[in-house]
């Protein structure tokens, strides 16, 4: 049987963008209003009441538009602002939208006037954007909205999709009650609660799947994506008295953080990154058993606290700050994040130092191996066998290990990875993006 066509129904506010556009428009239009703070609060409350299902959408919308006092000039400022506020994981996956332009629909209770200029940059077709429209006076003042549009009514998204009669498998991605209603009504097959910007408990608890990023959605549904493995699935263990700034850098990178006073063995099998406060230790036994551990950030001098030679032979990249520089609070977590994102080992304590440019439209593969003669020939024989075109290749060695980075631009099959992992003397292999 041929596979059903898939459609992706995506919300705009707090999903495609990081913010609620009407709230942002209010901040622009009421900038000089004496009671602006009180009005902002009212607008925000109306937004949240509707999102949590405590107030009908139409009632919430009518109240918010009334309070706005906005005009077309304010709209222009808003669009400029929203273009900078696209959710990180959506902007990272622009290629997906290009490829699936016919199947992606933006369905929003927001307004076309500001949604279209923002999402059009991502190859989303104008005819696939469903949203409300403003009513303006001759001199550009926003006074109302089109009440005949189903999206301005309670349950509007349900009414719209009933009318569209899309044939195929429908996926909904959003953060609010109106998105969940599509699932509740049975119109869509699966609802993904998008929590990159905001997690509403009442919605998260009802979702088929919680997706902390668009990468996660693409990964779960085995769709092409910019990064091979969603960062929210990478466990980052922070141990000891670590400055909140260091933690926030890693959190903002989308990693799954656990902050503990000491290394709990229950995490040993799954941990991908460890960040240690100065003075903390990791035993040889723990290092040997941490099969998924890729990098350690040590906020101080790691000498005598971690066995650096063992880390090297296990393929674990260590970043530390032997001079205890006060800037290591942000410096070390940034190095760790950079290594996870690009493979750069610049200023590592135990690995050959390599700074790497990110190459667009390619896949980056990392192969860490024992430094023995002929291994690069074996790696490149595997690529040749799979008809892979190499865009660029970097190799750095020290007496123990070789660190090879290969950028390829072809579609590949999973067999390629198995063959690379099977090369004798391989320590670690992973796909970065």
Structure notes:
By secondary structure, the chain is an alpha/beta fold. The chain folds into three domains: 6-220, Rossmann fold (3-Layer(aba) Sandwich), CATH 3.40.50; 231-342, NAD(P)-binding Rossmann-like Domain (Rossmann fold, 3-Layer(aba) Sandwich), CATH 3.40.50.720; 363-431, ACT domain (Alpha-Beta Plaits). 36% of the residues lie in helices and 21% in strands. The protein is built from 18 helices and 17 strands. The radius of gyration is 25 Å and the shape is globular. The two termini are 32 Å apart. InterPro entries: ACT-like_dom_sf, ACT_dom, AHAS_small-like_ACT, D-isomer_2_OHA_DH_cat_dom, HAD-like_SerB, HAD-like_sf, HAD_sf. Pathway: Amino-acid biosynthesis; L-serine biosynthesis; L-serine from 3-phospho-D-glycerate: step 3/3. One of its GO terms (cellular component) is cytoplasm. Residues 364-433 form the ACT domain.
């Amino acid at each position: 049987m041929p596979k059903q066509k898939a459609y992706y129904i995506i919300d705009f506010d707090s999903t495609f963008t990081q913010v609620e556009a009407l709230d942002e428009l209010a901040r622009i239009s009421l900038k000089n209003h004496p009671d602006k703070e009180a009005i902002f609060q009212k607008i925000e409350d109306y937004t949240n009441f509707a999102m949590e299902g405590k107030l009908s959408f139409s009632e919430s919308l009518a109240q918010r538009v009334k309070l706005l006092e906005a005009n077309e000039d304010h709209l222009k400022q808003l669009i400029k602002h929203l273009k900078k506020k696209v959710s990180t994981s959506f902007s990272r996956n622009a290629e997906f939208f290009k490829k699936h332009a016919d199947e992606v629909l933006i369905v929003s209770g927001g307004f076309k006037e500001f949604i279209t200029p923002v999402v059009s940059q991502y190859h989303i077709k104008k005819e696939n954007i469903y949203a409300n429209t403003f009513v303006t006076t001759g001199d550009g003042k926003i006074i109302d909205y089109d009440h005949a549009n189903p999206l301005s009514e309670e349950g509007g998204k349900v009414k719209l999709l009933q009318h569209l009669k899309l044939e195929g498998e429908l996926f909904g991605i959003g953060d609010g009650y109106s998105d969940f209603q599509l699932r509740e009504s049975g119109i869509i097959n699966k609802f993904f609660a998008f929590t990159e910007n905001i997690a509403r408990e009442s919605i998260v608890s009802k979702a088929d799947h919680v997706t902390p990023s668009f990468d996660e959605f693409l990964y779960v549904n085995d769709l092409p994506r910019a990064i091979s493995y969603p960062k929210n699935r990478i466990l980052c263990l922070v141990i000891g008295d670590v400055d909140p700034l260091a933690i926030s850098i890693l959190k903002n990178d989308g990693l799954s953080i656990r902050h503990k006073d000491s290394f709990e063995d229950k995490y040993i099998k799954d941990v991908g990154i460890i960040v240690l406060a100065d003075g903390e230790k990791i035993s040889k036994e723990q290092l040997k058993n941490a099969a998924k551990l890729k990098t350690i950030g040590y906020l101080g001098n790691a000498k005598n606290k971690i066995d650096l030679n063992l880390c090297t032979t296990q393929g674990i990249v260590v970043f530390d700050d032997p001079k205890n520089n006060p800037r290591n609070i942000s410096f070390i977590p940034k190095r760790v994040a950079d290594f996870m994102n690009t493979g750069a080992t610049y200023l590592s304590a135990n690995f050959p130092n390599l700074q790497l440019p990110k190459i667009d439209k390619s896949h980056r593969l990392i192969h860490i191996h024992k430094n023995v003669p002929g291994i690069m020939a074996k790696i490149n024989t595997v690529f040749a066998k799979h008809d892979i075109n190499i865009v660029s290749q970097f190799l750095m060695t020290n007496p123990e290990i070789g660190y090879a980075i290969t950028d390829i631009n072809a579609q590949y099959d999973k067999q390629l990875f198995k063959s690379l992992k099977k090369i004798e003397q391989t320590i670690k292999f992973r796909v970065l993006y």
